[in-house]
Amino acid sequence: MAVLVYTESWNGSFKKASFEAVSYAAQLANKIGTEAIALTIASSDDAAQLGNYGATKVLNITNESLATFNNQAYANAIVAAAEANGADTIIISNTNNGKAIAPIIAAKRNAGLITNAIELPSSTSPLTVKRKTFSSKAFTNYSSTAAQNVISITPNALGTIENGATAQIESFDYTATSSDNRLSSVSVDRASGKISLTEADFVVSAGRGLKGPENWGMVEELAGLLGAATACSKPVSDIGWRPHSEHVGQTGIAINPELYIAIGISGAIQHLAGVNASKNIVVINTDPEAPFFKAADYGIVGDAFDVVPKLIEALKIHKANN
Amino acid sequence: MKILVCISHVPDTTSKIKFTNNQTEFDSNGITFVINPYDEFGLTRAMKIKESTGATITVVNVGAASTEPTLRKALAIGADEAVRIDADPKDGSTVARLIADYAKEQNFDLIVTGRESIDYNGGIVPGMLATYLDIPFVNACIGFELEGTNAKAVREIDGGKETLEGTLPMLIAGQKGLVEEKELRIPAMRGIMMARKKPLSVIAAGDTRVSTTVVSFELPETKAACTMIDAGNVEQLVELLHTEAKVI
Ligand SMILES: Cc1cc2nc3c(=O)[nH]c(=O)nc-3n(C[C@H](O)[C@H](O)[C@H](O)COP(=O)(O)OP(=O)(O)OC[C@H]3O[C@@H](n4cnc5c(N)ncnc54)[C@H](O)[C@@H]3O)c2cc1C
Ligand SMILES: Cc1cc2nc3c(=O)[nH]c(=O)nc-3n(C[C@H](O)[C@H](O)[C@H](O)COP(=O)(O)OP(=O)(O)OC[C@H]3O[C@@H](n4cnc5c(N)ncnc54)[C@H](O)[C@@H]3O)c2cc1C
Strands, E, within chain B: which ranges? Predict the structure, then answer.
């Protein structure tokens, strides 16, 4: 009956997407008439706070063999926790790690897997969930015919609900097996303090209109002011002006932040596919005919080298006054 | 060494997506189908391994006869043989099970898929397939090097990357980075001619049970007209973001 939600942490602290996942699990549990149980692995964060998002109980795995992420081991640990707690629905956030474990769990449990969910289930029997498909060009309502299910939810698509409660914490044990450890992590390379694109509330993105990598200073300054992640169009990463990890669009990262600012990007269909789920889109482009304006909420026809510095100044004044 | 590359047959990225039959069926009218872009990165990586080790490459698709031109294209790029598992796939888990049933007998050393199929965006097939075959799985793979049977794979993580080590067999789900965009192979005339003579076998699908079904499709709501702001009045944008959009 119960709903189990895996709460991912990074360097011991919960990711924002984990709070969204717990809120989702709690609302779903409420609909079914059961409880939401959270599972943490190698987290040093305060697990009781997950109660604030609706978890009644938190299972905590601290086993040394799971100290670093490993998709097989984590998937097996989640399956073991679900079995021990009679959970037949598992909620995971669709982060890079979430994407690596959800299908393993579904295959192990013979479960229906619905990825990229953007809404709570519209029905719990049969379980019916709306998800993003066709790179955000369409949504699809899927219904599961399986007895067990795994739902992975799109980060940033669903907010959190807080209730002020604290959850009770229990320890749960799982030890990685030799078959879990067939891949070993050699190194992790992650810019510290960098905001991950899929979880960012604000994203500042620039395209070929910026002429060269030396002109990204103003993009970074604007992003810094907003606490935004930086992104780019595909050709910009293909020519090596920016890293591939910043490439958004149909063949890059799909995002849905509160605010997306596109500077010198034409708005090709493949670019729009990955970003049009953003709640507010601002486009700055010299060409009034640029297709991006059709997908934008706010537009400025103008030269980025003139408009962006002005925007930075205006934002600084706004920040000083608010 | 034997490599299996899984090829999803998808609408071209410029396609306007539309549905028929009361929004319950994808309308393939006027749609051009291509090799899933993520699978092109995987196929090119496999070609490089073939060129340095003499490996053979099999490409597989689970689909109806209409997907054969896509498999032929993969042969023209350089795969040695193609297999079509004859089914009308409607669910990622079915695709994974059917490919697993086929691959079990074949002892592939390396299985290469894309990170996701750009139509249904499931990200389901690779991880399920690896699990059914009980081999390690590297998702969002952006780098892969082989030395004998020892592999070093780089995967994308949120805000960075992680390098993993292991031995074959394994499954990698690739994307850009596995090879660069400019390295992608396009079929040349010679390749197209040779592809005609390469084997494309069709095998019957076993268990086509599904665990999820599509109830209906929806298109996003059309956006209201864009509010245009004068380039000389950027302050107005900040004001609107504050008072109207309420994001800052
Ligand atoms: C299979 C496939 C997959 C693809 N996937 C993606 C994807 O995932 N993501 C993606 O982004 N693209 C993707 N593309 C590429 C896409 O079709 C476009 O080519 C690309 O998005 C264009 O990038 P851009 O807007 O930066 O450059 P351009 O199209 O060259 O646009 C530059 C824009 O900058 C404007 N400009 C010029 N100077 C200035 C200035 N001084 N100030 C302000 N504006 C200025 C111009 O008016 C123009 O609109 C894909 C293409 C294919 C074929
Ligand atoms: C006309 C038509 C209608 C379809 N209708 C539906 C539908 O209603 N619902 C639905 O879910 N699917 C449908 N499909 C099948 C769909 O194209 C996918 O093959 C399948 O659903 C897996 O989707 P996914 O998003 O989970 O794949 P993912 O798991 O995202 O794919 C990842 C990787 O797995 C491999 N892969 C995926 N699919 C295949 C395949 N068929 N053969 C070989 N390798 C593959 C590729 O390497 C791909 O890069 C339809 C296909 C066609 C041609």
Answer: 2-6, 9-11, 19-20, 25-26, 33-35, 56-63, 81-86, 110-114, 137-147, 150-157, 160-167, 170-174, 200-204, 212-218, 227-229
Ligand 2 pocket residue status of B91, Cβ below 6 Å: yes
Query: Can you tell me whether residue B29 is helix, strand or coil?
Result: coil
Cβ(A266) to ligand 1 under 6 A? yes
In the predicted structure, residue B31 carries a pLDDT above the cut 70: yes
DSSP string over A140-161: EEEEE-SSSEEEEE-TTTS---
Annotation: CATH topology of A2-182: Rossmann fold (3.40.50)
Model pTM?
Answer: 0.96
Domain architecture of chain B: domains with CATH: 2-221 (3.40.50.620)
Q: What is the mean pLDDT of residues B35-48?
A: 98
CB-CB under 8 Å, A296 with B229: no
Give A-chain residues touching B92 at CB under 8 angstroms.
103, 113
Domains A2-182 and A202-321 share a fold: yes
CB–CB of A107 and B38 under 8 A? no
Q: C-alpha angle A81/A87/A93, rounded to 5°? A: 75
Tell me the pairing of strands A229-232 and B137-147. Answer: unpaired
Q: How far apart are CA B46 and CA B183, in angstroms?
A: 12
Ligand 2 in reach of B137 Cβ (< 6 A): no
Q: Residue A251: is its pLDDT beyond 90?
A: yes
* ipTM of this predicted structure: 0.97
Return the CATH fold of A202-321: Rossmann fold (3.40.50)
CB contact under 8 A, B160 and A106: no
Per-residue pLDDT at A192: 67
How many alpha carbons lie under 13 Å from residue B165 in its C-beta half-sphere? 7
What is the pLDDT, as a whole number, of residue A4?
98
User: How confident is the model over B184-207, as a mean pLDDT?
Assistant: 95
CB B166: neighbour CB atoms within 10 A? 18
Partners of A15 on chain B (C-beta within 8 Å) are 158
Contact B161, A194 (CB under 8 A): no
Give me the pLDDT at residue B20, please.
97
Average confidence (pLDDT) over A288-317: 98
- Find the A303 Cα to ligand 1 centroid distance in Å: 16
**Structural domain boundaries in chain A:** 2-182, 202-321
Neighbours of A278 (CB within 10 A): 25
